[in-house]
């Protein structure tokens, strides 16, 4: 099965490893790219129309991960500091 154009750099596993702030930044940049692609499409300057579909899917993936975290379906990946604290607590017990 062939992967879409945009999914190579924004795979679900990679997105799931990001914290909420990084996901928000990825969402912002994807929306900005979508705006620019739509503008290019309207002016007839868009060369790769499949990129529009790929960026829309990337945005949907980000929203899905954020919603799964909100509902508790997918856990938020802890940052390095939190993991160190958690391992210290386990060794003290």
UniProtKB/TrEMBL annotation:
GO MF annotations in UniProt: structural constituent of ribosome
GO BP of this protein: translation
Pfam families in the record: Ribosomal_L29 (PF00831)
GO cellular component: cytosolic large ribosomal subunit
Ribosomal protein as UniProt keyword: yes
Keyword GTP-binding assigned: no
Record keywords, A-Z: Ribonucleoprotein, Ribosomal protein
Domain of life: Bacteria
Family annotation (InterPro entries): Ribosomal_protein_uL29, Ribosomal_uL29, Ribosomal_uL29_CS, Ribosomal_uL29_sf
CDD domains linked to this entry: Ribosomal_L29_HIP (cd00427)
PROSITE patterns: RIBOSOMAL_L29
Coiled-coil zones: none
PANTHER family named in the record: 60S RIBOSOMAL PROTEIN L35/50S RIBOSOMAL PROTEIN L29, LARGE RIBOSOMAL SUBUNIT PROTEIN UL29C
Family recorded in the similarity comment: Belongs to the universal ribosomal protein uL29 family.
HAMAP family from the UniProt entry: Ribosomal_uL29
Protein's recorded name: Large ribosomal subunit protein uL29
